[in-house]
Amino acid sequence: MPKNHCPLCHTNKFNYYKAGDDYLLAKCSECGMVWDNHPPENPTAIYQKDYYNNDFPKGGYSNYFQGMKINSQTFRKRLLKAEKKLSGQGLLLDVGCALGDCLEQAKDLGWDNPQGLEVSEYAVNFAKSRGLSVYQGDLFNHNFEPNSFDLIMLQDMIEHTTDPIAQLTAAYQLLKPGGWIFITTPNVGGFWHKLLGSLWYHYKPTEHLTYFSLDTIKLALEKSGFSDVESKPTSNLMSLRYILNRLKYYQHILFSFLLSISQFIHLDKLVFNLWIGELEAWGKKDS
User: Fold this and answer.
1) Greatest Cα pair distance in the chain
2) Global pTM value
3) DSSP one-letter string for 27-44
4) Residue 226 and residue 218: Cα distance in Å, rounded?
5) Domain residues of the chain, as ranges?
6) Cα distance from N-terminal residue to C-terminal residue, the chain
């Protein structure tokens, strides 16, 4: 069903704009929130095995497994940031944990029994095969008690949902007083979006359903009860192979050729720390 009210401030004042040839999004005239007001009936249906290894020009991962080692370095950096926020470690819940790379890094750093929630049955089974504590469900379907966690991470997850305030409120309830939430999501107000417009890579029909800026993610956290809220652009570690694979969306022949050359001369595994149009945000549950 169409979502004709802003998911953030609930006004029905919005304008449509084209984010692709056949992709219309709504933008709130009051707070600037951007969302897909014709979301799929079952948004979680796409998260099958081929989501993690596919040849889609957009959507999912070209090969999640090839990038696991490098992705893990990004997760490690984020966990070390979280340790500074918490002044140590604590109980961690990674929501939308995929195959469990962040949880693996948490275990390696010494976090006690880090846990994950994931809607994909395939991803849950894969993570469990690695010896990780991962449960199939979401923030509305789980067996955790309120006030259970010191840190909840929503990494590239909130944009896949239609009601972000409900998601964040549910996360708030699961946090202990004094606990933190950490979010990463594409930044619809950032440089890359302004440069590329409708060609922006993070526009993904049927997959990304809400689009945040630095201001709207802060507003969402504040409306959900969080304090000490901050948001800023964030970077990711990426291999040259991953970068060229994704650039094939813009020019398939050219970047396929460059990918082949990079593999031939063994440069495809070079790693870069890049600002690719994402943001990170933090919020605290008051003691």
Assistant:
1) 56
2) 0.91
3) EETTT--EE-SS--SSGG
4) 9
5) 46-284
6) 39
